[in-house]
Every structure is written in C-alpha cells, then in structure tokens.
Design a protein that fits this description.
Its main location: nucleus. The chain is mainly alpha-helical and 1020 residues long. Helix 31 links the parallel strand 4 and strand 5 (660-662).
C-alpha cells in the first residue's frame, strides 16, 4: 500500500507492515477469513462481510468527492475491480505489484516484530484448513451440493443392491433353485426368499402373501408347486438365518434407495426445476455434478463463450455442453459415445430417427444450457420457461420427422416473458387484496404472531433458491424480463441505475441466445426427409433370417428365445407391447424354383411401425387421460374379431368424446353362445397400461355414476365421422355422465385424422393382447408347428354358419347343399351381402369362400410343395373334417388342427368357449411363415394387418373373382394356369396398399398411416 500516513504501519517497510498491536489480530481468524474471502471474490464474485470490515478498519477512509491518496496493490485484476466497485478503494495490479508480493511472501517473518517462530506455521496451517473448508462449502448460498451427493449415493446404491441381490439369488438357489426362473426381479426374489425361509415349510397359506409381493396369483401358485418337487439342497437352521438376515438387509437398502430417489426429486425441483423437468431429476443432477455446481461463477463462465459445436472450445467452459456435443458427434459418425453419455437414454433422442439423433443431442444440449441458466439466475421458481423449452424440443422433433417449421426462438421467449408478467400481475393483485382485508377478518394465527402457511411456504422455498449477485434482492418473476430484452440498448437506457456487471451479463446473454438461434438454422438444414419416423424398439423387432446365411443360426435361436419370454412382458412401452412372431425359416436348398418362390418372404420396402402423435394430441392427452366425470360404456357383439373391431372403435370414440372408457362388455352371441367376459379373452391390465396416455380405462363405473336409468344408444348410421359423434353425444354425456353404446360394428368411419389412425393401430397391435392362459397355449402350439420347419396357416371358412350367411353351396353333395338352402330360406335374416343374387352370381363375384378342392388347386398353382405343413384355422367344417377336407388332404397330406396339435387336457379349459379357440387359431396363424384365408372376414383382415405391422410376413389373399373362371376353363394348361395365378398374387411380395382411398382401414392396411418408410433398413 502506497501513500499510507506515517505511524499507522510499522516495520522494515512502512508500506507493508502493521503495528505490533494488530499482529495477533491478523494471524487470527480474520487473516484466515481474509484469504478465504479473497478466494471467494476471485471465483464467485462475492465479497464477504469479513473482507469488507478488514479493509475498512485497516485502511483510511476516502472522503466523498476527493481522490484517494493511496492505492491497494492486488495480484489479480478481477479481484481489484470487485474491491473497487464494492468499497470505493482504488486498486492497482501489474508486474510491480506481483514482484512486491513475491518478496513479501519470502521475507514475511522479518517484516513483523515479535513474531514467534511457530506462529507463521500455525497461521499457514489455519489458512490451509480454512481454504479446504471453503472448497467444500464453496458458496454460502449454494444448495445443489445435496443433490449432487444424493446422485452419487444413488449410483453407489444401485451397484451395491444389484451385487447384493445377485448374492442372495446365488445363496438361496442352493436351497431353492427353481425360484430363480419364476421370479426374475432381484428385489422381489429377496422378498420371496425372506418370506419362504425353508421350502419344506411352504404351504398354501403362503399363497396370499406371495401374491401380494408378486402381484400375480399364478406365479404364487407356481412357486408353491415348484417347492413340492424342488431339487435343491437342504440348509441348516444357522444357514437359513444368515440368508434371511442378508435378504432383510438387501430389502432395507432397496427401500432406502426409493426414499433417497424421492428426496432427490424434491431437491432437484427446488434447485433446478427447469433442468429437472426438461431431462429428468437424476440426469439433471448428473449434469450439475459435471461442472461441479450450479453456482453463478460456473454460469458466468458458460455465458462468456458463445455456444459452439466444436467440442474443443466448449470443453474449457462448459463440461455439460462438451459432453452433449461429443455425444452428438458420436451418434452422427457412429463412433464411441462419450464417457458419461448422459443424454443418450433421453426420450427426446430415442424418439428421433437414427439420422437425426446427433442433431437432437446437440439441440438438447443447448436447451439444457439455457435451462441451467434459468435455474441459476431466475428467482421465484417459475415453471414457464421449462414448459416453453420442452415445447421447443417437441417442435424440433416434428421438424426433423415431418418438416413442420418450428417457432422462432425469440417468439417463444417473448411468449414466456408475457406469461411470467401476467403471473406477476396476478400475484400483486392477490397481495393487494390481502392488504385491503380488515384486521378483524384476518386469521387468529396471524394476530398471535404466526405467519400464514402460504408465506411460510414461500419463505422456505425462497431460502433454497440460489441467489444471483447481479439480480435484484427481491425475488420476483418480473426480473425475467431483464434476461430477454427486445434490445439490449433499450434495456440499459430504461434503467436509471444499472451496474456494469449487470449490463455485461445482459449483453452477453442476449448475444449468446441470438447466436444460438442463428447457429441452429445454420447447422441444421431445412430440407428434411418427408417420411422419417420412429421405429419399434430393436429389442422387439422380429428377425427375418431369410436373408441370413446358415451361420446365423445363433441369432435365430436368440430370436426364438425372445419369443418364448414375450408372455412375461408387461411394460406399457409402444416398442415393447406388440406381439413378436417367431422368426421365419430359411428357404431349403433342395426345392424347385417355384417352391422356393412360394416360401420366399417379402422385403417390406423399408416400412417400420410409426406411431408418433402430434403435439396437439399429446397436449390434450394430459386432460383426457385423467377424466373422471364422463364415462363411455360399450357393448360389443358378434364373434371374437367383430368384438375386437368394436373395442378398437370404442377407444377412439372415448378419445373423441374425451371420456373415460369402461372395460367393454362382450355380448353373448346366439350362434356361438360364448359367455366369456373381457378379462377372460384379453389382458385387461395390459390394456389399461398401454392406453393410459391416450384414454383412461376403468374396470367398472364409479358408484357416483350408477343411475337407475341410463340412455342406451342402439341405432347409429354407418361410417359416422368424429365431428358427428361429438356433436351428437358430447352434450348428452356432459349432462348424464354416462353413455352406453351398442352395435358399433362398422359404425365409425375409417377416414379419420392421422392421430386417431395411429390410436387404432395402437389399440389393435399393442393394447389388445390376449389373456395369459390363451397366450401361453397359443404360443406353445405355434412353437410345436415352428420347430419342425416352415408352415402355412390356412383360415378355411367351411363352418355351417358361413355357408348360410354367404348364401353359397358347400360343394359336398346334394344332401349338404339342401340343408344349407333350407336354413337360408327359413331364416333369411342371417344372409349377408346382396340378397337378390343367385348362388352362381355370388360365386363368380367372389362372395363365396373357397372350398377344400379350390384351395388345393390354388396352393398347387402357387408352387406349394407336396410335403408342406398346413395349420387349419377355423371352426369345425360342415360335414366333418374328414369329408370336408378330403380334396385338400389328397394333395397335401400334412394337415394339422389345434385339436391334434394340443396334448391331452390342454384344450379342456377352453371347450365351449369359441372366442378363446379363435384366439388360439389367431396366435398360431400369426406365427406362421405364410397365411392364406379362404374367404377374408374380420380375422383375415386383422391378421393381414398385424403380420404386416410386425415385419411384413407373407399373406396371400386369394383373388376369387379371377380364380374361379380359370378353374372352370379346362383348356388352360397346368403350367400356364400356374403362371397366371402366381402373377395374380404377386402383390403378396410387398406391403399391400389399400385398394380404395375412401376405405382407410388401418387394421388391415397399416401403410402408410401407421408405418413409415426408411431410406435404409435398420439392422437389429
């Protein structure tokens, strides 16, 4: 210090020494705090009270309006500027000051009189301890350290729980090895092991407790049965006690982990609500831990450098941005992902196509940086900006997939600021109203000195928010307007007093946001692939080994094993809820050209499932999925697949009416006499979970809506539009709360908006999964067919009711034709189609099903080998299987039905349940290499669309109108007939388009509404 009055400092150098009376004071706590305070100034930009008081007490005061006679030498220029700004003390720095301070450090013990030899070491030790404490508690206002530590502890607990759970499984498997195969979850396995203890004591009394743990009574019974015949080793009581104690500790750790996660969620919502809401609480805590904290010094450093895609520039300033840009580069070049790879599992990147994964990662990095700045600088905990940021990410996804131009960044920010200002005005109005309340009207608690609960909660929340030295001390969302001025110059000129640091911050932030918006449009070209779309999860995608050499048999086996385990999957993910068929077989090498062509599978033309809904649809889902006032009840009539179509329409109608859907009621049909209910045929729990984001599904009406007389609508015109349904029923539904619809078959139009088309596909191909007993038996029968080689599923419509309803003759002889004709005349209401047409006209028009002889001629012309195996789906043929199928069995002897394929007793639970038997036929046909129906119908259309959706399995739809004249012309040679018929059915080698644009039945033809084409097929 230069120019200090004499007598104030004493020592070898008057400008560098202090009086003896102050020696102990300097080397006490004040000196340590001084060093820590200097460090805080240089890193955080804050000056502590101790540092301020030290300078004011030891330096002469400067009078207002006069120039200071001395200056304070400071090594760091930034430190000097902060001291000058805060205390008005003139500071200087330079080479002279640095050299002077270096000399002070070398000869410090000689400058102070009466300094004992040990005092300097004690002071150095105290300074070291204080500095370490400051590094741990870097900022007194910092509260994100708890979230970071909770995140680290979560990672440790995940590893430990996984390791300990595996140890429990291995230890207890010595005693009960069968339990591992039944219970796959480690935590549930530990709970079950603790409950069972010794397997010899397992009894039926344990089944309710096991059911409560597993949530599945069938598994509980399976554990009980396995315990009776377990091959495990007996354990001594001491061994069992140790296993139980260890399992108990693992369970406690797992429960503590859940509580810790809840704590992290709450903490992150207080510390960084915008970042947590954008990418999730755990991922947000990980990102905060990378730069070390969410304190102003880190954010100021990030703001000082423009956002760049070059990882070398961002690695110095922003580890978060550096990590995400490295991930974007890795996704683009298909290289190794960065060390942390935090955003790789983000739902935003998963929803983007493979081509745009890198772009999406880079865009998400920018939005995460903006969200972190909001959390750092914005006081008051507003949620407006994360909502807008999330909307921007959704819009960017639509831009990549569909080419819809997103809103400009400045427009979005203006909208966010306006919403924030409106909320601020509302808060001020509420406060003004409270002030106008008379004292006698205030609560008693306030008069007793207790603050109202709202004020207490606000005080608690404000105490946890990170404060910003550049912002106003009064928490107010209005301060957000300072972050996004229309013009930085206007912002600066409008305020009477603006600190230099505030001005620098505003300018840097505005320029960084502007550069960000420009760089986005520069780095991402506007030209997009118009048909980019998401695909089914790779883990659930079927493998088509026709294009693979025999060396890939391990891949085929792995796919088969995945099909075996598909029954246990209950996660409501779109990529994982669709049934996966068994893989198709390789074409044998010893076949003729026509036979090899018969087994050859279509390539699919790059079509993959694509069910991405629009942003408007997702916004409305938030309200519709929790609807509790309007309920729709639907009664589905007909056979299984008729009821299936009506259930699909019921979900769409519930969505149109914004109502909750009660599980559909299956009406007993007078022909099939099946009394099965919805949970008997379909998996009700899976149905609810899969559709919970689209429509709320409940098991029954709540008691508040059980009224004595309900309006039942039985008459509706065919092909009604969503607008007609809403105009007809929405007001009535609002008034009564319940709407009952009957007879929905073909009543809803097939020409629907894109989102409703996707919803139909979601219901048909994902939500409507058969009940577990049906699914297990159907898959078992399919595997028995599959294991012996490729097979064809023939859906032969030869039942008595089919001949009656179609108005056709059986071809089995006069006595059978007479029976059918007599029923048609006595009960004409069963006849479908054109009533005035004769049998010959119906047959030539393609309205009659192919009989066994005609099907045999078709298969022979298509090149089917004589040794081919056929699964016959459908009910009992009229006239008996032996007589009705004789012409087909003569040409192709390997005919199999479910009755001959099933073992003794397997079909017993489903006797007299036609819907369950039809579902089993559906599953075996679904897994076949080729599917051929004889007459179309609901099941044939559903299978055709479902097989196309999961991998474009080969389905041949007979062209009956062109076939029958060819069959009746004996002059056509067999080779020519075969060539013509193969030409007629060549469309089966690619996804079949719709024949009529006005009939957009996505259940039979999912292309293009529910499936998108990719430029290159994905490799799974």
């Amino acid at each position: 210090m230069n120019g200090v009055p004499k007598g104030r400092f004493k020592g070898a150098n008057p400008s560098l020494t202090v009086t003896d009376s102050r020696t102990r004071h300097i080397f006490g706590k004040t000196q340590i705090r001084l060093a820590i305070g200097l460090r805080l100034v240089s890193l955080v930009g804050l000056i502590t009270d101790e540092l301020r008081s030290f300078l004011e007490l030891n330096l002469p005061k400067v009078r207002v309006g006069k120039k200071s006679k001395f200056s304070l030498g400071v090594a760091e220029p930034k430190l000097g500027s902060h001291v000058t700004e805060t205390t008005k003390i003139t500071c200087q720095s330079g080479e002279f000051v640095l050299e002077l301070l270096h000399g002070v450090r070398l000869h410090f013990d000689k400058f102070i009189k009466d300094l004992k030899p040990g005092d300097l070491k004690k002071a150095q030790l105290g300074l070291a301890h204080g500095y370490s404490l400051a590094k741990v508690k870097f900022d007194v206002n910092r509260v994100d350290n708890t979230a970071i530590q909770a995140k680290f502890l979560l990672d440790t607990l995940d590893k430990d729980i996984s390791s300990f759970s595996m140890r429990v499984r291995e230890w207890y498997s010595w005693h009960f090895p069968e339990l591992v195969k039944i219970v796959n979850d480690n935590y549930l396995h530990a709970r079950v092991a603790k409950l069972i203890e010794c397997k010899s004591k397992l009894s039926e009394e344990h089944i309710p407790a096991l059911t409560e743990i597993l949530g599945d009574e069938d598994k509980a019974k399976e554990i009980f049965e396995a315990g009776k015949a377990s091959m495990g080793q007996d354990l001594t009581p001491v061994d069992l006690i140790n296993v139980q104690l260890f399992a108990h500790r693992v369970m406690n750790l797992a429960e503590y982990r859940k509580n810790l996660y809840d704590y992290l969620v709450t903490n992150m919502n207080d510390i960084a609500p915008n970042l947590a809401s954008l990418i999730g609480e755990v991922a947000g805590a990980r990102l905060i831990s990378l730069p070390g904290s969410l304190t102003p010094d880190r954010i100021v450093i990030i703001l000082a450098i423009n956002v760049q895609s070059d990882s070398s520039a961002s690695s110095v300033s922003d580890p978060l941005h550096h990590n995400l840009t490295k991930l974007a580069k890795a996704l683009k070049t298909r290289g190794n992902t960065p060390k942390y790879g935090l955003s790789f599992h983000s739902s935003f990147i998963g929803r983007a196509s493979a081509k745009n994964n890198g772009r999406m990662a880079r865009y998400l990095a920018n939005k995460c940086s903006v969200a972190s700045r909001m959390d750092c600088f914005v006081e008051g905990g507003t949620t407006v900006f994360w909502e807008k940021l999330r909307e921007q990410v959704d819009e960017r996804l639509e831009f990549y997939d569909k080419g819809v131009a997103p809103r400009k960044n400045i427009d979005v920010m203006k909208s966010a600021i306006e919403n924030t200002q409106n909320r601020d005005v509302e808060m001020e109005e509420e406060k003004s109203k409270k002030k106008k309340v008379k004292p006698e009207d205030t609560p008693v608690a306030a008069t007793n000195g207790d603050a109202p609960e709202d004020d207490k909660s606000m005080a608690r929340s404000s105490g946890r928010i990170i404060k910003n030295p550049f912002m106003s001390l009064t928490p107010s969302p209005r301060s957000l307007t300072q972050l996004f001025p229309v013009s930085p110059l206007t912002s600066l000129s409008s305020s009477k007093k603006t600190s230099p640091s505030h001005s620098i911050f505003v300018l840097s932030f505005v320029f960084s946001v502007t550069f960000l918006g420009i760089s986005m449009f520069r780095f991402f070209p506007a030209s997009q692939d118009p048909i980019q779309c998401s695909i089914v999860s790779p883990t659930m995608s079927p493998i088509s080994p026709l294009s693979l050499p025999p060396s890939h048999s391990q891949i085929i086996l792995a796919s088969l094993l995945s099909g075996l385990n598909s029954n246990d999957e209950v996660q409501p993910r779109i990529g994982g809820t669709s049934m996966v068929p068994l893989p198709v077989h390789l074409v044998p090498g010893d076949l003729s050209e026509q036979e090899a062509e018969f087994w050859k599978q279509p390539d699919g033309n790059g079509y993959r499932p694509c069910l991405d809904s629009t942003m408007e649809y997702r916004k409305r889902s938030a309200k519709i999925s929790i609807e509790k006032n309007r309920f729709l009840v639907v009664v589905a009539a007909g056979g299984l697949n008729q009821q299936r179509n009506q259930i699909i329409d019921a979900v769409v109608i519930a969505r149109i009416l914004e109502a909750a859907l009660v599980l559909p009621i299956l009406q007993v049909n007078m022909i099939w006499e099946d009394e099965s209910e919805f949970p008997d045929i379909f998996d009700a729990g899976h149905f609810k979970k899969t559709l919970r984001a689209d429509v709320r599904v409940v098991s029954s009406l709540p008691s508040s809506h059980l009224i004595a007389k309900q309006t039942i609508v039985t008459q509706m015109p065919y092909g009604v539009s969503p607008f007609w349904i809403r105009a007809k029923f929405f007001k009535q539904l609002n008034q009564e709360g319940v709407l009952v619809l009957k007879g929905l078959d073909s009543k809803l139009s097939k020409n629907l908006p894109s989102d409703l088309h996707k919803l139909r596909c979601k219901v048909a191909f994902h939500a409507l999964r058969f009940a577990k007993p049906i699914l297990q038996l159907g898959n078992q029968l399919a595997r028995r067919m599959w294991i012996e080689g490729p097979y064809v599923a023939l859906h032969l419509r030869l039942e008595k009711d089919v001949w009656v309803r179609t108005g056709c003759l059986t071809g089995l002889g006069p006595e059978f034709d007479e029976i059918v004709t007599r029923i048609q005349k006595s009960q004409p209401q069963y006849l479908t189609g054109r009533v005035n047409m004769s049998y010959a006209q119906r047959r030539l028009s393609g309205l009659c099903p192919l009989n066994a002889l005609e099907m045999a001629r078709l298969l022979k012309a298509l090149g089917a080998p004589k040794s081919a195996r056929f699964y016959i789906a459908g009910g009992e043929p009229f006239g008996g299987s032996t007589k009705a199928l004789a012409p087909l069995a003569a040409e192709f002897p390997n005919l199999v039905r479910k009755e001959s394929l099933a073992r003794d007793g397997e079909l017993s639970p489903f006797l007299n349940r036609s819907s369950a038997l039809s579902a089993i036929d559906y599953l075996v046909s679904f897994n076949s290499d080729i599917f051929i129906p004889s007459h179309g119908g609901n099941m044939a259309r559903a299978l055709q669309g479902h097989r196309a959706y999961v991998g474009n399995r080969k389905s041949i739809w007979p062209n009956k109108r062109a076939l029958l004249p060819l069959f009746e012309d004996p002059s056509i040679p067999d080779e020519e007939l075969s060539r013509i018929i193969r030409s007629l059915h060549s469309k089966s080698m690619k996804p079949e388009p719709r024949k009529k644009e006005r009939d957009n039945d996505v259940i039979a033809f999912p292309v293009p509404e529910c499936m998108c084409r990719r430029r290159s097929a994905a490799i799974f």
